[in-house]
TrEMBL record:
Residues 375-447 form the Lysidine-tRNA(Ile) synthetase C-terminal domain. Ligates lysine onto the cytidine present at position 34 of the AUA codon-specific tRNA(Ile) that contains the anticodon CAU, in an ATP-dependent manner. Cytidine is converted to lysidine, thus changing the amino acid specificity of the tRNA from methionine to isoleucine. It comes from Geomonas limicola. GO terms for biological process: tRNA modification. SUPFAM superfamilies: Adenine nucleotide alpha hydrolases-like (SSF52402), MesJ substrate recognition domain-like (SSF82829), PheT/TilS domain (SSF56037). This is tRNA(Ile)-lysidine synthase. Signal peptide: none annotated. SMART domains: TilS_C.
Length: 454
């Protein structure tokens, strides 16, 4: 039998003296994990954490009492909390299993912050890994999902991941340890339980070591995925348009890449814009790819999670949809800072005339006598007309947007700056003629659009 303690030490997951939050449900696996880490000779500072899901009434309360007793027996701090997971599942629109998982991780990260812990130890083992791979395969996943759980990903550490359930139970019996049994683990209406009690035994007829083989496959895919993530990150930095608030790409640049890399880049951009990839399926990635490869220069796609992907000429954008009725308007009484929609700021100041007036599109200079206060800053309206810099007459603002290849969804975000009932600047797009700086003025008005870093 594997020497479990020697096995965990060989993984080198924990630095000497590290503070580790140990997730303990009271079941066999987590009880073994706690005992092993307590015997660890790396001078670890352990914190026992237990979340009561409030799903099994008195049995759940007994589990919490049992884990609190374990912590006391080892003379370790205990962090326990109760959450109404059934209510959370309704609120979040997810299954009980998904709601429990989300609540559990939120709790563990909070405990880690409270105790200034550098990592969280979880009791997942090789059989759990096999179940995870099958569950994701049945739901439809690529290599990223089929790589399963990792030994070490960020703060999360899984010291038992290469050990079988049988090895863990043998360790418990050898140590004379007791644990709690969760009766809901036998409920085959839950997908993971069905895979454990029904599907894996059937597959075991074809290969008695099916769990071991699935876990090994996940580990191989994880190694491949590490390389592919590095390739994707490098391409993402190379292909994204610099300085954009939301992820944005050159369509021509994307189209020149292999399909597999394009799909990974879409996932990377969606994760950056949304914060996660929940409810994003292959069909969504293929729909984005169709936008990139289609001949039509302007089109848009709404995705789950309040995300809009649109193509405007040679740009592909990932952003939150502009809300209905999102028009804005406010007055600028004089120099100062003014909040714009989309985490931006308009700053106005009186400065010495620079040697060069032409520069970044987000900066404009005005003659103070031609651009008198108060100004009005508002969103674009149909029918707006504008005299661009260097033009004697005027043209429709809509035509300026078309000629500048501004995508339709982006036009409502552009601040239109007005003085004396004249549009003097389309912020970030084009300067106007009627308030331009002439001659050798000493002081000029400077307007600049800045991104807000929160």
């Amino acid at each position: 039998m594997t020497d479990l303690l020697a096995h965990i030490k060989a993984l080198k997951l924990f630095a000497p003296g590290a503070t580790v939050v140990v997730a303990v449900s009271g079941g066999a696996d987590s009880v073994a994990l706690l005992d092993l880490l307590h015997r660890f000779d790396g001078d670890l500072r352990l914190v026992v954490a237990h979340l009561n899901h409030s799903l099994r009434g008195e049995h759940a309360d007994k589990d919490q009492e049992f884990v609190a007793g374990l912590a006391a027996g080892y003379r370790l701090p205990f962090a326990g909390e109760r959450r109404e997971v059934a209510a959370l599942a309704k609120e979040w629109g997810t299954s009980l299993e998904d709601a429990g998982r989300r609540a559990r991780y939120e709790f563990l990260y909070r405990v880690a912050r409270a105790y200034q812990a550098g990592c969280i130890a979880l009791a997942h083992h090789r059989d759990d890994q096999a179940e995870t791979v099958l569950m994701r395969l049945l739901r439809g996943a690529g290599a990223t999902g089929l790589r399963g759980m990792g030994l070490s990903r960020g703060m999360l550490k899984r010291p038992l991941l290469r050990l079988s359930r049988a090895e863990i139970e043998c360790y418990l019996k050898g140590r004379g340890l007791t644990w709690r049994t969760d009766s809901s683990n036998a409920d085959t209406a839950i997908l993971r339980n069905s895979i454990r009690h029904e599907l894996l035994p059937i597959l075991g007829r074809y290969n008695p070591k099916v769990s071991e083989r699935l876990a090994a496959t996940a580990e191989i895919l994880a190694a491949d995925e590490e390389v592919l993530e590095q390739v994707t990150e490098s391409a993402y930095r190379r292909l994204t348009v610099p300085g954009a608030t939301d992820p944005s790409f050159s369509v021509a640049g994307l189209a020149a890449e292999p399909r597999g890399l394009r799909l990974r880049l879409y996932r990377r951009a969606l994760a950056a814009q949304r914060g996660d990839l929940q409810r994003i399926a292959l069909s969504h990635l293929e729909a984005i790819d169709h936008l990139v490869l289609a001949e039509r220069p302007n089109a848009q796609l709404k995705l789950p999670g309040a995300c809009l992907v649109w193509r405007g000429y040679d740009r592909l954008w990932f952003a939150a949809p502009v809300p209905a009725g999102g028009a804005f308007e406010f007055a600028v009484a004089g120099p100062g800072s003014y909040r714009l929609p989309g985490e931006r700021m308009l700053t106005v100041s009186l400065v010495e005339r620079p040697e060069r007036l032409a520069g970044a599109s987000t900066v404009a200079y005005f003659d103070p006598e031609a651009a008198t206060f108060p100004w009005t800053v508002r969103s674009f309206r149909p029918g707006d007309r504008f005299a661009p810099l260097g033009m004697a007459g005027s043209q429709k603002v809509k035509d300026v947007f078309i000629n500048s290849k501004i995508p339709v969804p982006e036009r409502g975000r552009i601040p239109v700056l007005i003085s004396r009932d004249r549009i003097i600047w389309l912020g970030g797009v084009k300067m106007g003629e009627q308030a331009r700086v002439t001659g050798s003025l000493g002081l000029v008005l400077k307007a600049e659009i800045l991104d807000i870093t929160l």
